[in-house]
Amino acid sequence: MMASGADERMTGRNGKRTAAILSALWMGLGQCYNGQWLKGLVFLLFQALFLVVFFDFFHLGLWGIITLGEIPVLDHSIELLAMGLISILLILIGLLFYALNIVDAYRIGALRDGGQRPPSLSETWKQLTDQGFPYLVIAPSMILLVFVVLFPILFMVMLAFTNYDLYHQPPAKLVDYVGLDNFVNLIRSDLWKDSFFSVFAWTIVWTFVSTTVQVALGLFLAVFIHQRGIRLKKVFRTILILPWAVPSFVTIVVFSGMFDDNFGVINQLLQQVGIGPVPWLTDPFWSKVAVLLIQFWLGFPFSLALYTGVLQSIPHDLYEAADVDGATSWQKFRNITLPMALYATGPLLIVQYVGNFNNFNVIYLFNKGNPPVPGSTAGGTDILISWVYKLTFNTFKFNYAAAISIVIGLVVAAVSFLQFRRMRAFREEGMIE
Amino acid sequence: MMLGKKWLSATMSLALALSVLAGCAPERQQATTGGEKSEKLVVWENADDGKQLGHTKKLAAEFEKKTGIKVEVVPVAILKQQEKLTLDGPAGKGPDLVTWPHDQLGAAVIKGLVQPIQPDASVTGQFDESALSALTVDGKLYGLPKVTESIALIYNKKLMPNPPATFEELKSFAKSYTKPAEKKYGVMFEINNLYFNHFLVDAKGGYVFKHENGKYDPSDIGLNNAGAVEAGKEVESWFKEGLLPNGLKGDTINGLFKEGKVAAVINGPWAVLDYKQAGIDVGVAPIPKVNGKDARTFIGVKGWYLSAYSKAPKEALELMQFLTGKEALKSRFLETGEIPPHKELINDPVIADDPVVSGFAKQAAMGVPMPNIAEMNQVWEPINNAFNFIATGKQNPEQALNDAVKIIKEKIKTQQQ
Q1: Is the pLDDT of residue B32 over 50?
Q2: DSSP at A169
Q3: How many CB atoms lie within 10 A of CB A340?
Q4: Count of CB contacts below 8 A, A vs B?
Q5: How close A344 comes to chain B (CA, Å)?
């Protein structure tokens, strides 16, 4: 009712600043000033409710994440840490809305300064669902992601800087921040130092061999089935994809039984063809071979499926042109198929390398990282992640577990980042010339 | 930009407000540490065994009738109780009495989950010394025992009418009887596992942690001293002389014993039912003397502990004493088959006249508890690896045990860091 009067008053004056300041004072005030009463009221109420509902929680959480509690038994440091993180995340989300509210007041104010009528509620709604539709749709999943993915990561990062272990554990004791002590102790401790390099070396070999072979095998089979003369292509593909269809932990546990030194099927078969029993589970070398074989089996169907798709998308005229030039099959593979296939699947290759670097399931379910190696805290097949898991949970060093996870995470992230940047698929978006 | 400055000042004032908010301690709900009386006691009993649960419920009802104090029995998995208590205790929903194997007691004391008890000497006097020491941490008693468990010699009466009197005789019997080609073995047990070979280590003079005045010293490890090396050589000899097969596993032992190929095994009471069902006529006897000394096996004790969050510790202790009284433990044995570490009950006809049970009970009475301190967690894997290296000839006993103790010490150092 007073909108028209206000319009006249505001024209040509600096209403956008006033609106922005009002909105900064309390959410929605600027909107009311702009004449968007309902929107303003909703915002007003939003801030009031946000503060009323969360005030105590924020107070406890923010105090808690800084002090981690002051009185043992009464204060539960780990709960306080979690509450603090949730508080900070909620406050950030609140601040985001707060900022949007100020920007909105400023924009509408500018519109009015230019003599335009502020959009009505239905117009605002239309604009929101039209232009803002993508944001509207992803908003719920983004908020969920914050709490399901971001929160645990932040929680872990915080733990890496505390002394959270058996002797500093609620309820009896409080947890304290210890700065970088965990990282320093990890480097110094004999427990880690002595076995680290052998584990790290095996991790690299494991990552490289398992991934490369599973990819090469998948590519080879895909090319083979793709040949023109091959019949029953669908049958072959279906059969070869089966290892992928069975849940991997079932496969691993079954294989672990088949590789048993004394009673396993594999050794029985080997003995029938005259090869002595192979110590698959008790000899470090042979258990490494066994776990690699299992990973080949588990990994190749994915590559097969991937390359089957890629091969079908390679334009046929390339091969025809090669035929005209008199290229051999190998030349065609080397110069057409391989570059095209790798170009299309480069990012996925990195994902597979990283996946195997941290392939805890296969290692742990097959033989728990065993067999033991004299004088070492790591077993013969332990890769970094499984070794760390055993050591930290066995010694109750939750803080060390967090610290090492951060280190592993950083290494993986750095390698992936460099590789991704070098990949042509990311650098340029066109096809191969 | 005007707006930029505004932004800055707004953010600053907000940060200031937040830091004030974070600076002073907020009001917290006072957790339950004593104070008001609760009108009932709560007991967490093993959820995995219906018989045990049923028996405790029955006793709870009796206690209620006798004293007028209400008792609620809640089933909670025995290995989950500690974890659950860390959450439920501070929240005021915790029980008064909890139960778990004694080797987890040390960690629970560190976490502050249980409180020491001081029952009369007439109460503690009923139990085996070893069972009480299992429930003692740093010289303080934290609970009363209800069950004790030990391994013993289980023999096939058809193949071994009478168990030998000494371990040396047992070994020479094994030598004369064993024919690996026919899968016939005189005596089989997991000699490459500290849990099963502790009596050898102990008899030769080795020990896990020095134990004095109810306290373990985790810095004094006796698993590579001269006695332990002797035990290591004993382990080595069983494999070298072909008395035990390579790649020895519990499953293999049970399988062969059930086929009637093995004259005697060393195993716990949990295995007996399975053996009997396979049609073996089993006898149970204490493990024969080693070097003329009693075979002191590792025993496991399950006790009732008093929660640190109990609102009525006096009444809870009364209930604990009732649950571990002579009559209660006797009826518990009759219903669940759990052997009580109770001096009088061991000589009671219900136990003494049962040849299987009395064999285990006698062995348990002379056993030593597995160390209950949290450092014990670091011992198992390295030491069993070492015995495996000895068994497979990868390392000689001295070297294997020295390596193992070095790793154990490093792990303990890391744990305590």
Answers
A1: no
A2: -
A3: 18
A4: 122
A5: 45
The arrangement of strands across the sheet holding B152-156 comes to B185-188, B262-267, B152-156, B282-285
Query: CA of A103 to nearest chain B CA: how many angstroms apart?
Result: 10
Residue B156 has φ and ψ, to the nearest 5°, of: -85, 110
Please determine, for residue A78, whether its predicted confidence score (pLDDT) is greater than 50. yes
Kindly state whether B176 is in contact with chain A, defined as any CB-CB distance less than 8 angstroms. no
Q: pLDDT for A377-408, tens place per residue? A: 888 999 989 988 888 888 888 898 898 889 88
- B32 to chain A, any CB pair closer than 8 A? The answer is no
Residue B213 has pLDDT above 70, yes or no: yes
> H or E segment at B84?
helix B81-88
The pair of structure tokens assigned to A193 is 């130092």
In this prediction the pTM is 0.82
Query: B164-178: per-residue pLDDT in tens?
Result: 999 999 999 999 999
pLDDT in tens, B90-127: 778 889 999 999 999 999 999 989 999 999 999 999 99
- Mutation pick from A17, A59, A67 vs chain B, by most beta carbons of B within 10 Å, is A59
Residues of A in contact with B409 (CB under 8 A): none
Contact B247 A170 (CB under 8 A): no
ipTM of this predicted complex?
Answer: 0.77
Contact B414 A21 (CB under 8 A): no
- Answer whether B172 touches A (CB < 8 Å): no
Tokens encoding B106: 């040390």
Phi, psi of A286 (to 5 degrees): -70, -30
Nearest to B90 among A70, A76, A165 (CB): A76
Helices A151-159 & A77-113 angle (0-180, nearest 10) = 130
Q: Please count the other Cβ atoms lying within 10 Å of the Cβ belonging to residue B325.
A: 15
Higher-confidence residue: B12 or A323?
A323
Q: CA-to-CA distance for B264 and A267, rounded, in angstroms? A: 29
Q: How many whole angstroms separate alpha carbon A370 and alpha carbon A387?
A: 10
CB-based contacts of B11, cutoff 8 Å, min separation 6? none
User: Across the interface, which of B10, B25, B378 has its CB nearest the CB of A395?
Assistant: B378
Return phi, psi of residue B206, to 5°: -85, 165
Contact of A282 with A371, CB cutoff 8 Å:
yes
**Cα end-to-end span (Å), chain B:** 53
* Interchain CB distance below 8 Å, B6 and A397: no
- The closest alpha carbon to B284, from B306, B266, B259, B296, belongs to B266
Indicate yes or no: CB of A73 within 8 angstroms of CB of B33: yes
Tokens, residue A174: 């409080």
Mutate to test the interface with A, among B11, B415, B416 (most CBs of A within 10 A): B415
